[in-house]
Amino acid sequence: MTGRVKYRVQLLIDKDVLEGEYFGCHPCVNTSSIRMRMHDLIEVFLPAVGHTPVYVEL
């Protein structure tokens, strides 16, 4: 394979998660947690890291 393939992971977000004011997650560090406003996650963070989520109903 030549070159580098970008973004091999597709981000899926359950539509119910969007109803919350905050989003919390564990960043794979046992001593840390992250909490941010849902608006900041969708409108600021994800575009900054180049990911467009697909919204699903689970």
What does this structure look like?
There is one protein chain. The chain is built from 1 helix and 4 strands; from the N terminus they run βββαβ. The radius of gyration is 14 Å and the shape is globular. The strands form 2 sheets. It has a two-stranded parallel sheet with strand order 1-4. By secondary structure, it is α+β, with helices and mostly antiparallel strands.
Percent of residues in beta strands? Answer: 15-25%
Instruction: Report the end-to-end length measured between terminal Cα atoms.
Output: 35 Å
Largest sheet: 2 strands, parallel
What's the total number of strands? 4
CA-atom Rg in angstroms: 14 Å
Query: Globular, elongated, flat, extended or rod-shaped: what is the shape?
Result: globular
Major sheet strand order: 1-4
Characteristics:
single chain, about 60 residues, two-stranded parallel sheet, two-stranded antiparallel ribbon, alpha+beta
Structure summarized in a few sentences:
With 58 residues, the protein is of the alpha+beta class. Helices cover 19% and strands 24% of the residues.
Layout of helices and strands:
Elements: E1 12-14, E2 22-25, E3 34-37, H1 38-48, E4 54-56
Parallel strand pairs: 1-4
Antiparallel strand pairs: 2-3
